[in-house]
Amino acid sequence: MSKPVVLIAEELSPATLDALGPDFEVRHCDGANRDELLPALADVDAILIRSATKMDAEALAAGKKLKVVARAGVGLDNVDVAAATQAGIMVVNAPTSNITSAAELAVGLLLATARNIAPANEALKGGAWKRSKYSGVELLDKTVGVVGLGRIGALVAERLKGFGMKILAYDPYASAAKAGQIGAQLVGLDELLAESDFITIHLPKTPETLGLIGEDALSKVKPSVRIVNAARGGIVDEAALARALDEGRVAGAGIDVFASEPCTESPLFAHESVVVTPHLGASTEEAQEKAGIAVAKSVRLALGGELVPDAVNVSSGFIAEEVRPGITLVEKLGRIFTAVAGAVPAQLDIDVRGEITEHDVSVWKLVALKGLFTDVVEDPVTYVNAPVLAEQRDCQVRLVTSPDAGDFRNITILRGTLADGTIVSVAGTLTGPKMVEKLVGVGDYDLEVPLSDHMLVFEYTDRPGVVGRIGQLLGDAGVNIGGMQVSRHGESAIGVLNVDNVVSQQLAGELAEVIEATKFAVVDLED
């Protein structure tokens, strides 16, 4: 059996290959070269990139087998996440890999602007001793405004607190309690701009934050302010900042990121009071190693069919260990539901009952949808595109939980309402120390049947000889019965058979006709 193919399109830490392990065929290409990248994508299962490889709609379409795009870093500006989601391709990154490195660079740029380290260094190496020209300012008792109190902003605030600085923070999504824990005071943006001696930016790049520190914002700052941007290019309007420096309305700046990169020309470069670096926030050995290891682990999980915590286009959230064993069961229940119903429901309730509801089981909505559409559409169904498929088919999904599971420790019921108003339900549970997956209900019928790769589910009018006729036909067709159970409800009955082989639609039709079945479903759970 061939190994999954992983394409490494940029230079990554050697620890990345170690983390991938021996279970993959690893190939390399220059992701920045489109003529090399596009044909290389044709038969790969996953691609690992950094910032130079553009995974746009064209590149994603070239990856006919592509299941995962893994960005060894935080930003995803070079990945068309929407197109990947539509194609069912998981996008993962390493959101915490570089936070320490990025925070330390921001502090370094702030110190460099405060003490004129860069121009003093250049002057001295040029033979000039200019002590008086390059005197600076202390950080002690100064006010720093942290714009964005996420993971990196919080680390910067904690470090600058150690310099004896007063910390103001602007972040509409942060709580006062969180700010207080790191010794910061939450304020509005205008107050931060007016009061800060230093301003450091730590926001994501969005339509709302693009140009946030522009002409209007820079008209509200102290002329002695020094501004640091080690977050995303474009949040600080570089042309507006250059004008403010020209006019003496800003004292200095430390810039690591630019609106267009690579950037080798800028009006900011003309100012000695501006320290610039070429997007070095994540450029430490430690950050690169962490990023490579993180995305390699994510690729292993994704190609193994597992949910990935760092997938940016999968709403899975934290999954407790107690919840994980039920993931496969719920996905299989989704497939059984589709087989029994013969249609996609307009409304699907995932009804989870028992001790398991002490934990967050919201991921089971996603898992149930993946199972629901697996045998309905021709294209591969993944945790990524399953919600998209549901939306396209107007399938509404709801999670219902209750601590009371009746006769079971835990039970999950998929209950769907079809377009014609018919209600279909299937229920399953895990039993015993080996966590055996069992079907324990179809509609109003109670059962307890272990799940197998091939199953038949049929409803009929209860009478003698039905099971014998089914057994005879299956035997004649060379299909062995591994187990069965019949459940009765009034004059009707339902039978569930575990069989060793695939039952063709033609044979299923003959079986249904012979027993005069009111419902007959072939369930195939084999991957």
Task: Quickly list its features.
527 residues, 17 helices, 60s Ribosomal Protein L30, Chain: A, alpha/beta, six-stranded mixed sheet, Rossmann fold, D-isomer_DH_CS1, PGDH_ASB_dom, 22 strands, elongated
Mean pLDDT: 93
Give the structural class: alpha/beta
Measured as a percent range, the helix fraction is 25-40%
> For the record, what CATH class of the largest domain applies?
Alpha Beta
The low-confidence parts are: none
Which value, in Å, is the CA radius of gyration? 30 Å
Taking the alpha carbons of the first and last residues, their distance comes to 15 Å
Q: Architecture of the largest domain, according to CATH?
A: 3-Layer(aba) Sandwich
For the record, the count of structural domains works out to 4
In CATH terms, what is the fold-level topology of the largest domain? Rossmann fold
Walk across the major sheet and give the strand order: 8-7-6-9-10-11-12
Number of helices: 17
Shape label: elongated
Residue fraction in strands: 15-25%
CATH superfamily of the largest domain: NAD(P)-binding Rossmann-like Domain
Q: Count of DSSP E strands? A: 22
Description:
- The two termini are 15 Å apart.
- A hairpin with a 5-residue loop joins β15 and β16.
- The model has no long low-confidence stretch (mean pLDDT 93).
- Helix content is 31%, strand content 24%.
- It has 4 domains: 5-96 and 286-304, Rossmann fold; 98-276, 3-Layer(aba) Sandwich (Rossmann fold), CATH 3.40.50.720; 315-451, 60s Ribosomal Protein L30, Chain: A (2-Layer Sandwich); 454-526, 2-Layer Sandwich (Alpha-Beta Plaits), CATH 3.30.70.260.
- α5 (99-115) crosses α7, α13 (325-341) packs across α14 (363-374) and α14 (363-374) crosses α15.
- By secondary structure, the protein is α/β, with parallel strands linked by helices.
- It has helices at 14-20, 34-40, 57-62, 81-86, 99-115, 117-125, 151-161, 176-181, 189-195, 215-218, 238-246, 285-303, 325-341, 363-374, 386-392, 466-476, 505-514, and strands spanning 5-8, 25-28, 46-49, 68-71, 90-93, 143-147, 166-170, 184-186, 198-201, 226-229, 252-255, 274-276, 347-354, 396-402, 410-417, 423-431, 436-442, 445-450, 454-461, 481-489, 492-499, 519-524.
- The radius of gyration is 30 Å and the shape is elongated.
- The strands form 4 sheets. Strands 8-7-6-9-10-11-12 form a 7-stranded parallel β-sheet, with helices on both faces.
